[in-house]
Design goal:
This protein is α/β, with parallel strands linked by helices. It has helices at residues 15-28, 59-62, 68-71, 81-91, 96-100, 118-123, 161-167, 199-213, 228-236, 243-250, 277-287, 323-337; strands at 2-4, 35-37, 50-51, 54-58, 104-108, 168-172, 240-242, 260-268, 291-299, 308-310.
Length: 338
């Protein structure tokens, strides 16, 4: 049996559509084995509304492209505050949702925000001050981070850290620090619309945020969601897991009889090894001694190989309307040559 278990191909196919295209390619290539489709998500877009009996709160819906008001703003003035407000209204202390469940999954990924999660913390009750010591009354944005001043002890009184520590379990779509070393939140800012000239400004802003909060980055998911991982995992202290790993285990896959595992995503690059679906599936296949193939809509040249295939030779050739056909044809060619 061949297990087809991809992520979405961002901008062109959902995970299910990609699964179907891969299966069609296998059949076109002459495959006669049973094919099992198992589309996955990693914490970003495509997460289910419920996982293992608990609600899933998706940052991609609240502070991602689905938030039209946020999308219309420039990157440096977007705040993660809508996430915090939604949590307060639906799962905050004293709410029906807060009493109805012991904890919720917070799927962190697919955001447009890069404010280090400061806006979300503010909406949960933390009070920030400007460099004159005055309380901010507007939502904190990335542009404000370098100008935050040290907080007073009572600025933390409005946020119930113990409550949120127990109420939220972070599911991250990537392993990344806030500012480095290694893969960090800064590496994802350009794709969220931040101009490269603002990166030094943003780096200093993150450093200042850590100073005023008195919380150094302490977890491997601090860089997820433009720093929302930092706000919840390091500042509040919420438990965290890799979304792809939890999703993979939740599927209760019967691995007996699987001979080949095929995964993929829109772009396979240096970020993929940071805990994305392709990486999680690869590790599981290796653990079980199974053959594994990854098919990217585009794969960086240095990562290509016999088992890592790219549907296009150059990133400039990307065309979302052709993505399903190219994925199908790439898989078909691979299977014919197998």
């Amino acid at each position: 049996m061949i297990l087809v278990i991809p992520d979405k191909y961002k901008g062109s196919m959902t995970a299910m559509e990609a699964s179907v295209a891969i299966a069609e390619g296998l059949v076109a290539g002459g495959c006669r084995e049973e094919i099992m489709l198992c589309p996955l998500a990693d914490g970003g877009e495509g997460m289910p509304e419920e996982l293992e009996g608990r609600p899933v709160v998706s940052t991609s819906l609240l502070v991602g492209k689905a938030n039209a008001e946020l999308s219309a703003k420039k990157a440096m003035i977007r705040s993660s505050a809508p996430l915090g407000r939604w949590l307060m209204e639906n799962y905050g202390p004293g709410t029906r949702g807060g009493a109805a469940t012991d904890y919720v999954w917070l799927a962190v990924g697919g955001t447009l925000t890069v404010d280090g999660g400061a806006g979300a913390l503010q909406a949960l009750g933390l009070r920030f001050r400007d460099n004159y010591g005055n309380l901010f009354t507007k939502d904190v944005t990335p542009a404000m981070l370098p100008f935050l001043s040290p907080l007073h002890e009572d600025d933390f009184d409005g946020i119930d850290m113990d409550y949120w520590r127990g109420k939220v379990h972070v599911l991250s779509d990537v392993r990344a620090t806030l500012t480095g070393p290694g893969l960090s939140a800064l590496d994802f800012t350009l794709q969220k619309g931040v101009d490269a000239k603002y990166l030094p400004f943003l780096r200093s802003g993150y450093a200042n945020l850590q100073r005023v909060l008195g919380r150094e980055g302490r977890t491997a998911v601090d860089g997820a969601g433009g720093g929302i991982g930092y706000a919840f995992a390091s500042v509040i202290g919420s438990p965290w897991s890799m979304g792809a790993d939890v999703m993979l285990q939740s599927r209760r896959i019967d691995w007996d009889g699987v001979t080949l595992v095929i995964s993929g995503e829109g772009c396979i690059d240096s970020q993929t090894a940071g805990g994305k679906v392709v990486d999680a599936v690869r590790r599981e296949a290796m653990k079980r001694g199974l053959a594994f193939v990854a098919v990217g809509g585009y794969v960086e040249p240095q990562l290509r190989g016999d088992c890592v295939l790219s549907t296009i030779a150059d990133a400039a050739d990307y065309d979302p309307s052709l993505a399903p056909v190219r994925l199908r044809d790439t898989v078909a060619r691979y299977f014919r040559a197998k």
